[in-house]
Amino acid sequence: MHHMAILVTDKLPMFELGCALEVFSLPKQEISPWYKCDVISFDSSTLTTSTGLQLSAIETDELLHYDRLLIPGWDTQSKKIKLSLAEQIVAFHGLNKPIITFCSGAFLPAQLGLLNNLKATTHWRYAEEFKQRFPLVEYVDNVLYTQNQNISCSAGSTAALDLSIEIVRQDFGHEVANVIARRLVLSPHRTGGQAQFVETPIVHKHHRFAKTLDWAIKKLHTVLKVDDLAKHANMSRRSFDRHFKASVGMPPKEWLNQQRIRLAKDLLEHDRISMDELASKVGFDNTVTLRFNFHKFVGISPSEYQQQFFQG
């Protein structure tokens, strides 16, 4: 069981806190052991959220008995950190225990110098302020989240769910992560990737393309072309490309390659498989194309991924 501290402060963002509680704190009876979460505060046992609601938390001055720390938000205008909190977070980090931040929460470890020389992100609204205040941090634009050493940072709002599901996947595997995504009524149609190993299982199904997306996922073992998807949707290729990108948020070829990589990751987690066989099973016509796309969306090679996440 992973014992998690969810650190809250006055005027905390309610949505990000809700994401943390929904994914990590809400019991999952069919998945055991699950996370054990405590909502804690170094300030007071009674706090007021950004919406004016009052919240009761466990007042404490100690973190080190927890396995991981989640910071759903932080006051971006604050230049001061309570000494006991600063000391505990630095000591927690020194033990190589995971620290997770949502949105403005990245400001706290950045103020403590824990993100120096590491990649990090936060909500785009705070990007310029973050870069100005923390020039030693390698700020990354236009990503859902970053993961470096033992610190993970998500961008704003719903990216907190993307990072949360990725953490579940790392802790419990791809199948459990998809169970949680389905509970949240999120589609596992997209597994996005960036150079710093950013990934998300989320793209909301658009009703216009839902049947075509489902059909394509069942056909990933074949060498599907975008023309095949357009034909299934009863659209011209030009019209399909335009409407698909507007609805799903990316070109159809990119979406198709992401789904192949999602399937490849699942196979690598559960089977000892050659690269030739893997390429064939996920619909790439050769291993060069497989490796190129795997590195593009995941940030590491297929063999490195299997070394880290094989569950067989």
Automatic annotation (TrEMBL):
<keyword id="KW-0805">Transcription regulation</keyword>
<dbReference type="Pfam" id="PF12833">
    <property type="entry name" value="HTH_18"/>
</dbReference>
<keyword id="KW-0804">Transcription</keyword>
<dbReference type="InterPro" id="IPR029062">
    <property type="entry name" value="Class_I_gatase-like"/>
</dbReference>
<dbReference type="InterPro" id="IPR009057">
    <property type="entry name" value="Homeodomain-like_sf"/>
</dbReference>
<protein>
    <submittedName>
        <fullName>Transcriptional regulator FtrA</fullName>
    </submittedName>
</protein>
<dbReference type="InterPro" id="IPR018060">
    <property type="entry name" value="HTH_AraC"/>
</dbReference>
<dbReference type="Pfam" id="PF01965">
    <property type="entry name" value="DJ-1_PfpI"/>
</dbReference>
<feature type="domain" description="HTH araC/xylS-type">
    <location>
        <begin position="210"/>
        <end position="308"/>
    </location>
</feature>
<dbReference type="InterPro" id="IPR052158">
    <property type="entry name" value="INH-QAR"/>
</dbReference>
<dbReference type="InterPro" id="IPR002818">
    <property type="entry name" value="DJ-1/PfpI"/>
</dbReference>
